[in-house]
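Q: What does the assembled structure look like for these inputs?
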Amino acid sequence: MDIPLWVLLVPFAFIVAFTALFLFFNVFHLARYGVVGRGAIGLILVYLVSYLFVLVLGATALLDIQWTQTVTLSDILPFTGGSSSSFGL
Amino acid sequence: MMNLDTLPNALPNEKVILFLRRHWIDLIRIFAFSGVLFVLPIVVGTLIELASPDLIAHVFWGPALVATLVAYLLVILVLTLTELTDYWLDVWIVTTERIINTEQHGLFNRVVSEVYLHQIQDITSEQKGYLATFLTFGNVFVQTAAERERFQFKNIDNPDDVKIAIGGLAKTCKNTHGHKMHEEEAPTE
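A:
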């Protein structure tokens, strides 16, 4: 049975959506309940920049993978003679 | 956002005297814990590399590991940011008339309470442990006559100084309110 590699992206997308929601709530709380000043604005910027940094870094790593590739069950089980690398290494 | 110049339900001539947050040691704790969690994948990755060098280049497990790593980093980052928000939004404001306590517990639990200085009956400061003694942080408990739990300033810097400052303000406030009450009670002729 062939399994497309992109199925791995489905749980990944859920996790990204979950973290994005939490980021939104964090930013919302700071914007709504923080004390007026440079500190809160700076912290919101740090939140957004750090999140985008990890996301872009992760996306760069994930884009190197050929997600359209399919694998078989025997490929998934390690040490049973899976096919070649999907990284092109 | 909350503006310290225009506090909610501000009284006439009310001024902010102290604006307190938890001691920076709490920030160190947050970053240290997160740091360990961020470094953990490097250790696990090295162990995987040593145990099974081909696994990283595997057609399925390679991409699965990369996706898991990115997801893990995002979750740890967001958890760290949530702890940071918790730290940032825990504030105690002491004014010439009252104490406003704002505590954030996680993202969906927020408690805001206030106590008027003339209601204060007892103030206690405590520093427990070596670290608290060396870095001069600790708790301040404020007790009122009301049947409610003690008002607590958690892990603030210089709790003794804060206790003295609140004590002084409470005394001034009681004198002022005492005079006002006597004036109101005095019969008008």
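Residues 82-89 of chain A have pLDDT under 50 and may be disordered.
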